[in-house]
């Protein structure tokens, strides 16, 4: 059985602490998306949660990123805060790995969407090195259609399903470490990552 595509990224690309940390010293702000999109495979767009973007904005983002790159647009908050977006409509439940939000690993759609929120500033990669192989193994299991053991569930796991795409975003926590954590996870998945 083939696997779905695993995409690893961060939330946004304009963040002051990433300058001289993730982005090279002196790198132009206007080219930050260009740089990030060549080291990550996805970026979550937060601005769409608060309002619509112009078509020209989307076109500009597409022009600045490679064809293999993917954006994940947060739906407008009016839609995401509704309780009627139950499993029957195949809307993905976000698996949030955090102390502040419940961790629910329910595959309710044909893809898995994960937000890792526990990066720490005292680790150069945002997490201890042993975290990345475990995250990579979970992502590969999801991509193959399975479900990693030991995750919190509401219902019993379903039998193996079709391959599915997996999105893993390093969001919040020590946000200054998020790009390094994402690149470390890509390496744990066996992907070549530009320095």
Description:
The chain is an alpha/beta fold. It has a single domain, classed as TIM Barrel, CATH 3.20.20.410. The protein has a six-stranded parallel beta sheet. Helix 1 links the parallel strand 1 and strand 2. Helix 5 crosses helix 6. The two termini are 32 Å apart. The model has no long low-confidence stretch (mean pLDDT 87). This is DUF72 domain-containing protein. It comes from Pelomonas margarita. Pfam families: DUF72.
Question: Could you list the spans in which at least 5 consecutive residues all have pLDDT below 50?
Answer: none
Query: What name goes with the CATH superfamily?
Result: Protein of unknown function UPF0759
Shape: globular
Helix content range: 10-25%
* CATH architectural name: Alpha-Beta Barrel
CATH fold description = TIM Barrel
Read across the widest sheet, the strand sequence of neighbours is 3-2-1-6-5-4
Radius of gyration: 17 Å
